């Protein structure tokens, strides 16, 4: 048997539940997860869960356990795709397509893979629509604050000014006819951390749908979720019930929503921050000022695609209530939940825009 035949045989055995390999995603039947409501006693309540570590988080695919075995194989293929996309999109891999662009695109226009080019077009459009609150060129700023190395620090004024000189998607020139990108200044770089996970989920949705899988939920970490079809557990449902994380209490939900053919993205800095001289600095930066955004605890967005949900969640967190409300007429299919500190210590206040009040069921103790 050739090495390729052995690999395929091993994969078939794995998909049939005969083996579990460290090189392949874990697969198990689960009655409930932190983000999905389910009843373990209802007919068909069990889920097939597939997991894969990628993009500095855990990606998971959930399938109804009553589906055909080919659905599991499609789920594994979706996670394989996430691994491939990480190699293309990661700012932490020197040989990724994103990093190669940083090293060459200021010298001359560089041809970009079509799907990545489309993603960059979306990011530049979002930069315009949010008046700079969303910006994929914020890499130098992220590094100046130490968040790239996960060692937060307050930058010196000169270092911050140098970083800000390289930030701005207006420094990117996209040529659609030739599918090229040009950086108008040396040192400009791309960081897709605020949109890449969502994009990966959108690609997973495409793969699963093309494979004939009708019902599934995929997520990257706890901040990006996409669902299609319904959770088949014997209870009438309108899609998949997904918990919205509480910005101050990681073990609790602020509420739940139902998703079907939609995605949810959440942005916040409560648990990714550092203290300096008694002041807290969160990792979500406002590219316009170079400072951490401070007006909200979290922003959650429901959108038709996961890339859009992730990007707008970041933008809305940076912009705050007034700018977010002004933005929404451009995105009529988007709903937004903004959470800020309440009047009492430890309490929160919610602001629902774009019809979110008709989507979100608040938890009784979320206020």
UniProtKB/TrEMBL annotation:
Residues forming coiled coils: none
Keyword Transferase: yes
Catalytic activity: L-threonyl-[protein] + FAD = FMN-L-threonyl-[protein] + AMP + H(+)
Keywords: FAD, Flavoprotein, Lipoprotein, Magnesium, Metal-binding, Transferase
Any one Gene Ontology molecular-function term assigned to this protein's record: metal ion binding
Cofactor binding note from Swiss-Prot or TrEMBL: Magnesium. Can also use manganese.
Binding site for Mg(2+): 194, 310, 314
Highest taxon above the source species: Bacteria
Cofactor: Mg(2+); Mn(2+)
Protein EC: 2.7.1.180
Keyword Nucleotide-binding part of the UniProt annotation: no
Family: Belongs to the ApbE family.
Name this polypeptide is given: FAD:protein FMN transferase
Organism (species): Bremerella volcania
Classification of source organism: Bacteria, Pseudomonadati, Planctomycetota, Planctomycetia, Pirellulales
